[in-house]
Design brief:
With 149 residues, the chain is of the alpha+beta class. It is built from 5 helices and 5 strands. Strand 4 and strand 5 form a beta hairpin. Helix 1 runs antiparallel to helix 2 and helix 1 crosses helix 3. The longest helix has 15 residues.
């Protein structure tokens, strides 16, 4: 697998020495010299998870601890998201703490028709080692059946 030139996108490059212990490359087409570097920053999935947790009512300091970043970083991600995507943010109830026992009791009170209802489970693993699982109602299934007019 050859590297693509950062300037012209050509895949014909030759090794061209070292700089700070890293291999340099030179594009045969345009002569641009570049170094293969590792990507910086966090993935978009981690950023979206942090914003989603904040929108659900979790504090920025708790999110920062879970993702292993600073509170300022979480604040910046949230601010960036809200300025770009404000009209797309759904209104949500704040997150509430509960126990697994209460969740089990709740599901035992439901009738069998409701238990067959499809849901999505969003699951992600954070760098801190924490697992996040969120149950989301199936967006294609509404509580009431629609009739065609």
């Amino acid at each position: 697998m050859e590297l693509k030139c950062l300037r012209c996108g050509c895949e014909k490059a030759v090794k061209n020495g070292f700089i700070f212990g890293l291999q340099r490359y030179k594009c045969k087409k345009c002569g641009y010299q570049y170094t293969k570097t590792k990507p910086h920053g966090r993935s978009d999935a981690e950023k979206r998870t942090a914003v989603m947790l904040y929108a659900s009512g979790l504090s920025m300091s708790m999110i920062a601890k879970m993702i292993d970043v600073s509170v300022q970083t979480v604040s910046r991600w949230v601010r960036t998201f809200y300025t770009k995507k404000l009209e797309e943010i759904p209104k949500m109830e704040p997150m509430q703490k509960t126990t697994l026992k209460k969740i089990m009791e709740y599901f035992q009170t439901l009738n069998k028709d409701v238990l067959d209802h499809e849901v999505f489970v969003l699951s992600t693993k954070l760098p801190s080692g924490s697992d996040i699982r969120i149950i989301v109602d199936n967006p294609n299934h509404c509580g009431k059946k629609r009739t065609k007019r």
